[in-house]
Every structure is written in C-alpha cells, then in structure tokens.
Design a protein that fits this description.
Shape: globular
Strand order of the largest sheet: 3-2-1-4-5-6
CATH topology: Rossmann fold
Order of helices and strands: HHEHHEEHEHHHHHEHEHHH
Catalytic activity: 5,6-dimethylbenzimidazole + nicotinate beta-D-ribonucleotide = alpha-ribazole 5'-phosphate + nicotinate + H(+)
Oligomer: single chain
Distance between the termini: 55 Å
Strand content: 5-15%
CATH architecture: 3-Layer(aba) Sandwich
Enzyme class: transferase
CATH class: Alpha Beta
Number of domains: 1
Helix content: 40-55%
Organism: Oleispira antarctica RB-8
Bound molecules: alpha-ribazole-5'-phosphate, nicotinic acid
Number of helices: 14
Structural class: alpha/beta
Largest sheet: 6 strands, parallel
Number of strands: 6
Protein name: Nicotinate-nucleotide--dimethylbenzimidazole phosphoribosyltransferase
Radius of gyration: 21 Å
EC number: 2.4.2.21
CATH superfamily: Nicotinate-nucleotide-dimethylbenzimidazole phosphoribosyltransferase (CobT), large domain
C-alpha cells in the first residue's frame, strides 16, 4: 500500500544553527537566561529557519470554517447560522481576528470547508476561498462525522493552503477556526487522543449553562461509546469525531512541517487538530509553537499530552486564531532581541566573573 501524503517525512530542524543561537544568547548583554521564554522562542525559530538571525516577515493567518451535525443535540449557546455570518464578518474586517491580523501586519484568508448555510460569494472577496466538502459533518454522537473521502478532501484543503503560502513566501502559519459547535468534536478528539474522560475535557464553549454542560458531556460520551478506540488509527478517529475545518487544520499543520514553515497553534480547537496531526505524523511536533492556554478547561490536558508550554494565559476562549495572533508580537520581539542586542564583547561590558558565575 502506498503511503498517504501526510505520512511523508517532515523537514529536520537545524541542530547546528540551534547551537549557534544558544551560544549567541549566552553572549548578549544580559545575565544568562534573564529573557526567559523569549530566549527559547528565538532559539527555536533560529533552528527552524536554519538562520542564526531569525525574523518573521510574512505571517499568514487562515481561518478554516465548517459546520457540525452535532449542533442538533443542543451543544452550543449559538445557532448554526453564526458560522456563515462570521465568515462575512472576517472578510469585512469586523471580527477579533480581522483586527488582530491588521494590527500585526499579517495576511488573513478565510476558507469555507463546509457550511450548512449558503456563503454569498457575490462580493468576490479576495480573501475568501470556497472549498465546501459538504453542508457540515454528520452528527458524531450517532455516526461517523465524515466519510473517508471527505476526510481526505478536508485534509487536502489545509495542504493546498500551505503549499500556496509557501509559493507566496510565508514564514509563519497561524490557523484559526470558525464553526458553531466545534468545541464538541474538539473535546471528543481530545478524549480519544489523550485518554481523558469527557467530564475533564468538556467545557462551556460559547457559554452554555450547567445543564447544557452536563448534556454536552453526555453527547461526547455517547460518541466515544460507539467506537472501539484502541482499534482505530489516528486518522480513523479524526474521521469519526472531527470536523471539516479541524481536518483541514490537521492537513495544514502537517504540510507546514513537511515544507519547513513554523505553525503557531491557537486554542482548544486548533490544539485538538495539533494532537491529531502529531498522532498521524509525530515529526510534526518540532514545527509547532504554542501561543496560549485557553480558558476552555480541557485545553491544559491537551497541552500536557503534547508537552507544550504555551506563552500566554490571558483567559481567552474565542478561537479564530486570536490567541496565536496575540502572541505574534512576542515572537517578533524575541527575534528582535536575539538579532539586535549587543554582545558583551561588542559593548565592552564585563561578563560574569569566573568565581561567581555558575
Ligand atoms: C459570534 C461568535 C464568534 C466566534 N468566533 C469564534 N467562536 C468560537 O465559538 C465556536 C465554538 O463554541 P461552541 O462549541 O460553544 O459553539 C467556534 O465557532 C469558535 O471558533 C465564535 C462564536 C461566536 C458565537
Ligand atoms: O480556545 C478556543 O479555541 C475556544 C474556546 C471556546 C470557544 N471557542 C474556541
């Protein structure tokens, strides 16, 4: 059997440049380690770019949108129509991520991966890409969320977006998502990939009440109970419990790692996609940076499973790529410090004395 594209090797990180970047951090005019995580970020980016002086010049933010059959179970505080309504808001500039993309000088694209209501493309927005796989997934609490063909199609949406990005010269990829109900498939995937219970992994999403939360946990338990998880591959789990936009993000993360583009992961839903991507191709992990910890309580368990230490913890629980976009200036500042600070020798500053330096 031939290997699927997502199983192909990812680019190796540049260990030589990593060592050089570590050495440079030790020479800059500051006590060693005093810039904390910013030092790690610069070293990581240097090793990924293979460039001792890393820089983020052309970030791309892509929102993947999709609808979910499971909303029929009453798992969201908002109606399904909001998915398509928000697509319009993204391209018109009114959404949180639209503002964050602009203030961070990042390109924003929106991809419709499969929505239940018609997206009006009459305005011919350049940023809007139509890749409708179907009018939303099937209800994952009752049956497979998607067919094997739909999974392949959805994965290839992300693959194609990243390949186009590579041609355009992007050097950082941020995936955002929009899909009413998508904290339910994300939590279900989180359970399946980490082994945590639905009670631990499930949160309020857009703001359901206590009764809604109890019901949402039950819906996810029902979805998990219809599967023999130990007998399923990572991609079969994604097909059973995922969403079109989630699978597209999985495809995007994998292709980023294969093409050597770092991806900055956002919140709960994109981290579920990151988990799937790492299960389907473990080499992807090196290319993922984690921006923030969402207030959706299950997020920390997904992050732990990925051994990820996110940069920020701001109480965000929006998605759309908003947490990743908020962390982008930190990445840029980490690079600027790494590249622009003087070394002890350049600034003629005495370094730590032999006796006291540890
Ligand atoms: C106006 C609005 C904008 C959003 N932007 C992101 N989400 C977020 O909320 C949804 C997931 O939560 P749940 O599973 O509870 O439906 C996703 O669309 C996610 O991106 C939004 C939700 C709403 C209502
Ligand atoms: O963290 C997220 O991505 C998130 C949390 C709640 C609702 N939508 C998205």
């Amino acid at each position: 059997m031939t290997q699927a594209w997502w199983e192909n090797d990812c680019l190796a990180i540049n260990e030589k440049v990593k060592t050089q970047a570590e050495e440079r951090q030790g020479m800059l005019t500051k006590p060693p380690g005093s810039l904390g995580r910013l030092e790690d970020v610069a070293i990581t980016l240097a090793s990924l770019y293979g460039d001792e002086k890393p820089e983020i010049k052309q970030p791309l933010i892509t929102i993947f949108a999709g609808d979910h059959g499971v909303v029929a179970q009453g798992v969201s505080a908002f109606p399904q129509a909001v998915t398509v309504e928000m697509i319009r808001n993204f391209v018109k500039g009114g959404a949180a991520i639209s503002v964050l993309a602009q203030v961070n000088d990042a390109e924003l694209k929106v991809v419709n991966c499969g929505t239940a209501f018609e997206v009006d493309f009459a305005d011919d927005y350049e940023a809007l890409i139509d890749k409708q796989v179907g009018p939303g997934t099937a209800d994952l609490s009752l049956e497979s969320a998607m067919s094997a063909e739909q999974l392949t199609q959805a994965l290839s949406i992300g693959q194609q977006v990243v390949e186009q990005g590579k041609k355009d010269g992007i050097d950082l990829f941020i995936a955002g998502e929009m899909g009413i109900g998508n904290t339910t498939p994300a939590a279900a995937l989180g359970c399946a990939y980490t082994g945590q219970s639905a009670a631990v992994m499930t949160g309020r999403g857009t703001g359901i009440d206590d009764a809604g939360l109890t019901h949402k946990i039950m819906v996810i338990e029902k979805a998990l109970a219809r599967l023999q998880l130990t007998e399923l591959s990572a991609e079969q789990i994604l097909k059973e419990l995922g969403g079109f936009e989630i699978a597209a993000i999985v495809g995007a993360y994998i292709r980023c790692a294969q093409l050597g583009i770092p991806a900055l992961v956002d919140g709960f839903i994109t981290t579920a996609a990151a988990l799937a991507a790492c299960k389907m191709n473990p080499q992807v992990h090196d290319w993922l940076l984690f921006s923030h910890q969402s207030d959706e309580p299950g997020h920390q368990f997904m992050l732990e499973a990925l051994e990820a230490k996110p940069l920020l913890h701001l109480g965000l629980r929006l998605g759309e790529g908003s947490g990743a976009a908020t962390a982008l200036p930190l990445l840029r500042q980490a690079c600027a410090l790494h590249n622009g600070m003087a070394t002890f020798a350049e600034a003629a500053i005495s370094s730590a004395s032999e006796e006291t330096a540890s």
